[in-house]
């Protein structure tokens, strides 16, 4: 009996030890868990918490036990308490907002399970709670990312699609239809190269990634739209890698058809003359360079022809630039009829064309072509209902005799062409090394003269005009000089003839007019006595259709009173188409400006002609003054001119007066206004200041 009782006691101790061990294990498990364990009584007071509770909420066990639901926000407290009263917690997990000690809120995964006694009555609740804020944030970011991708995928104007390792479409966005004409459903699981032109098949994704695994591909290709038209696309492709394994490709395709067309247009404009649609200077030079390289490799010859239309400026000036453009178009058509597809005809600009003749046998081929061109161009042109006659001057340079590079050949052909211009035009000329050096200098001077206009290298010198009876300065003749950067100050004799030949006299003359008016107005504003600013007009300037308008605008811009501007024209201008000259002079006089005849006595004017011209003054040419005190003929001519001027009631001025004897003699003949080195040489405006200071 005693033995049985001892056995029972030992069993009881063993059970108690096991129970204690299990309890310790449970406590350890609970306290080391990543979730908070909370025991709540039926009134909502905390009975027990584990160690993790403090880590999640911030309250220690001592602070929390006995508190009534401190972790439930106030706005949620009534609902929680109601559920306690009604025993509605059933152990189902839910997501709730819970409160930390520091007042922050977080999202928790919460499970509340009732604790029952032996009779099945609820005595308390066990709450298991996990902070899932990070998970919720990750889920939200993932959702936002998915939504963003979906939005970008579905609303992107570019075609976005995926391709599997067999090259089949696996996913396509709506923009695919816009670019290809096919719906995503029509293309799904079909080979992605089905849209490519045959010559672009080699650009397939499979080919690229087989040769360059794991790399990005960027290509431009042309596809066939569902309606049959061609569409240029730019495609970026990336491999889709999942856990280190490539499972397909992600692609973005953009329609660049308009861009490619714009590029082609820009390229066409960059290398094509817009008026004639011929290659321009840039393209010609490129082709010439390529032809030289080929000729050097093969031992071939080639020729460069510079083709210039003779007296084309006359057509432009007389019939207008629009008509001139039509003439150039007609000429380009004639020239194209002369050349083969192997040759390159180009418009260099203005009325200049060039022709590249590769693979020639020798100079005779270029000569024969020149004769052919001259014959074709010589035939009358019908332009806008008008018959036009045009001739050409052609310069020829041969490779390799006249140059081994593009610049040298073009320069020498140009020089040869200008040589023809100097010797009567309407012919051709082969370049030779012994060609007149003056022609080369002439060409170089023209280039420098064009640059001088752009760089404003011109200056004005002024020569006073003096009334010898009163001693007063009555005017200033404006004389242009060229401040050449290398040759120094050049007088008009070195560049005005070339300016007139090339038409550059027009912009130069316009600059002289404006500068002279600006200086005249400035001197007036500084308090100087009024004086006329005398400016020479060349024949080419005078023939400009808008001459009167230009002069009027200059007077308006500078503010100079028109009566202080004197325009000098030569007798040769006055006698060239008298009726037109009279009409233009009357327009100028109506502006209020003064008109004088320069170099009078050297031309062929007569009293009957002079009476027709609305002029104010005659300027006796210096050639009659040099020997006037010793040559009776010069004295008689000057006396006759004085008499003529008096009879026509015209003012008179004498130029080229260099000695006191000349001044006294001319004064006795009735000449009172003079200019020349006796009074002052031409001076720049700043050096005239002292001279003007003495005449206030």
Keywords:
single chain, coiled coil, Beta-Lactamase, 27 strands, 696 residues, alpha+beta, five-stranded antiparallel beta sheet, Diguanylate cyclase, EAL_sf, PAS_fold, Nucleotide_cyclase
Task: Give a brief description.
The chain has 25 helices and 27 strands.
Intertermini distance: 158 Å
CATH topology of the largest domain: TIM Barrel
Taking all Cα atoms into account, the compactness measure Rg is: 51 Å
Strand order of the largest sheet: 18-19-21-22-23-24-25-26
How many distinct domains?
Answer: 4
Which regions are unreliable across 5 or more consecutive residues at pLDDT < 50?
none
Query: In CATH, what is the homologous superfamily of the largest domain?
Result: EAL domain
Second rung of CATH, namely the architecture of the largest domain:
Alpha-Beta Barrel
Structural class: alpha+beta
Q: How many β-strand stretches?
A: 27
Strand content: 25-35%
Please tell me about this protein's structure.
The strands form five sheets. The chain has an eight-stranded mixed β-barrel. The protein has a five-stranded antiparallel β-sheet with strand order 2-1-5-4-3. Helix 11 packs antiparallel against helix 12. It folds into four domains: 118 residues, Beta-Lactamase, CATH 3.30.450; 118 residues, PAS domain (Beta-Lactamase, 2-Layer Sandwich); 162 residues, Alpha-Beta Plaits (2-Layer Sandwich), CATH 3.30.70.270; 242 residues, EAL domain (TIM Barrel). It is elongated and about 180 Å long. It starts with a helix and ends with a helix. By secondary structure, the protein is α+β, with helices and mostly antiparallel strands. It contains 25 helices and 27 strands. The longest helix is centred in the N-terminal third of the chain and has 30 residues.
